[in-house]
Every structure is written in C-alpha cells, then in structure tokens.
C-alpha cells in the first residue's frame, strides 16, 4: 500500500526552514525582477516611458519596439513611435554571436577536458609546477591581459576576424582545467585498469571511457562558457567592430549611440536586449534539467 503523507501543521514547521524559504524567495525575486522590468520596458510605448513608469504592467503594451529594432518598420514609423530611426541587423549579428560563442564553447571545453585529464592521470616532468602556474593565472585580472592580447592580435593581422576574436580564450581557461581535473581525479582507477586489460589505449581511454562518464562536468563547463562568451562585450568591441564580425552585444551599444536625441532610446534598447537574452534563456531551459540529471548521475554534489 502507498503510505499516506500528512502535511506538517504550520505551527510545527521549523523556523530555520521558513527563513531559508523566505531567503530563497527574496533571492529569486531579486534575480528575476531586472529581466522582467527589461521586458516591461520593451513593451512600453516610448511616449509612455516616463508617465507610465510605476505600474508593474504597461498600460498600453505594444510590439512596435521589437519591430523597429528588427528593421520591420520604416524610419517614419519608427520615429513616430518615439524611436531614433536606427535599427539592428539582428539576424546577421545573431549569426555572428552564434559563431563566436560556438567556437569558444566547443573548442575550449574539449581542450580543457584534455588538459584536465593530462594533469589528473599522466605523469611528466614539471607537471605540478605547470599546474601551479596555471592555477596562479586565476589571480590575474582579465583586464591586465587585455592590452597584450590586443597588440598580439593586431600584429598578427587578425583584427575584425573571428580568429582574432576567439584567440585569447578558445583553447582553455584555468578554472575549467582545474574543475575538470578535480572530477577526473574522482574517477576510480579500477575502471581505467579494467579498460586497459581490454586493450584500450591512452586515446581510447579518454574518448571512450572517461568522456562518457564526464557528461555532467562537461555540460557545466560548456554552459558557463557559452553564457560568458554570449554576454562578452569589451573584447568583441575592440577586435570585431566590422559588420562581418560584429556580435549582438556590440551592436546594441552602437544602436544606443545612434540615437540623435539627448536621451538614449531606452525602449528600443530594452527590446534589443530582450531579443539578445532569449537564445541563452532557451538554452538554459532545454539543457538545465539535463545538466541536473547528469550531475546527479555522475555523483557531483
């Protein structure tokens, strides 16, 4: 028989649990509210932006801001709606963002996995010293390496190319190598010894045994890398200002500068920002549950 579950009376719920749920609710609201307000502003007519700036819902919701950002309206219609007449070549910049984000995510995750496995299992002279230097790089702020990387990319003639945009971060990052190395160390050696007895070599061990067992950590690194590269702004701004390599974050900054008014085109900017966030949101919705299931399967806590 299925046991009958009884609810705990409200007076018997521990205060610690109530405080934890309250804190969680406050954190959730604080996290979601900026995104909600961005969408609300995008749905607000420019003429009502300041007069209708208190209510949680816009009084006269409209999709005109999305249409004019996407270039689906004429300049006269865009200016009549309170915009500047500027538009974003959204599909082109979306494709550029996918290329930039995809190259970094796929190549970096793979290279970090190989490096992490080498530090975890292989023995070679100076291994611990090299790993220590790599971990020390975590303490170097990225802004310190910005100028040397820019000079290097410029000297190579890679400005306004995807090669120059992804060069500083496409191979590996210290945190990802450290994270994956710690997971590889937790894999029982008996599994690899059994595979060796079956005739599996070094490359086969990594590709056929270790990687299938590491789906959770690899998905974690892949998602964090994808989100970071998708929202990156400063480096693509310096190295990819050309139309053929411009990503969405840079395009939104240029869209803001194109406003001839003294005030930025906030409604259009929020509409463009909402469209920019949607791909990452869809990615998290479809892969978030799989990520949790993979982590539970691999025993990551």
List keywords for this structure.
single chain; about 300 residues; mainly alpha; 14 helices; disordered C terminus; Carbohydrate ABC transporter permease
What does this molecule look like?
With 301 residues, this protein is mostly helical. Helices cover 67% and strands 0% of the residues. It contains 14 helices and no strands. It has helices spanning 15-42, 64-69, 75-80, 90-121, 127-136, 142-155, 162-166, 174-186, 189-197, 202-213, 215-231, 234-239, 248-257, 266-298. α1 packs antiparallel against α14 (266-298), α4 (90-121) crosses α8 and α4 crosses α11.
Count of DSSP-assigned helices: 14
Q: Which stretches are poorly predicted, pLDDT < 50 over at least 5 residues?
A: 297-301
Q: In total, how many beta strands?
A: 0
What is the overall silhouette?
A: globular
Q: What pattern of helices and strands is seen along the backbone?
A: HHHHHHHHHHHHHH
Strand content: under 5%
Estimated structural class: mainly alpha
Give the radius of gyration.
25 Å
